[in-house]
Each structure stands twice: as structure tokens, then as C-alpha cells.
User: Fold this.
Amino acid sequence: MNKTRFIGFRVTESEYERLASNARSLSITPSAYLRFLINLPIAKADVLAQMEEPDKRIIAIHEADLGPIRLELAREGNNLNQAAFALNALKKKPYMRMDVMQERTKDALDRIERSHSMLSEISRNMISTLDRVHTSIKKR
Assistant:
């Protein structure tokens, strides 16, 4: 999108430091950070009134930002499917040699552990990023 408008305004030193710090923590420029904040949807009072717990925070994530998350989740889902397939194959072949069975079981469990670790890391990163964004919005 063509950026044709310029906005200039003054902030205190502490506000500027908070802006710069928040932008750095998200690996974006201060301008990109402000554009991100401007584009966050704001829940209207009637929407908040309909919520069961209106004091809970609502965080919006742009759909374009979900692409890498979806891709990683798909990869981890594939790992889990492969692990489940390996475990089911063991169940169908009771005559399999014990060493092969142990190797395949270990491989399946390793895949499950890697998937769990990756999903935990994704979750921690998302929560951390969303908390930083929420905190910076709340301080405005």
C-alpha cells in the first residue's frame, strides 16, 4: 500500500523509549509498530457487554501473520501422524523383532517429543508477543 500521509507528533523521552523498545522486541521499526497498533480492531461496547467475561483481554492477530504459525502447526501435525502410524504398525505386527519394535517405538516417541517442544515454543512465543503488544496498548 502506498504511504502518502505523514504524521508528526511529540512524545516524552520515556514514551519514545517504550515505543522503540516495543518495536525492537517485535523486530520491527517504530513506524511499523505504530501502523500495527493503528490497524488493531477495537471491540465496541456492545460486543464487550455480550462477553461472558468482559474484563478478559481480546487480542487480534492479523490473518497474514498466522501463515508461519499454520505452517509450523501443519509440520508438527505431520510428525504426530507419522508417530501414530509407526505405533499402529507395531500393533499390527506382533511378530516383529524386539529390537526393530524398540527402535520404531523410540522413533515415534522422539517425534512426539519434538512436536511437543515445537508447539510449546510456538505457544510461548505467541503469548510473549501478544503480552508485549497488550502491555504497550494498555500503557497508552
In short: The mean pLDDT is 77.
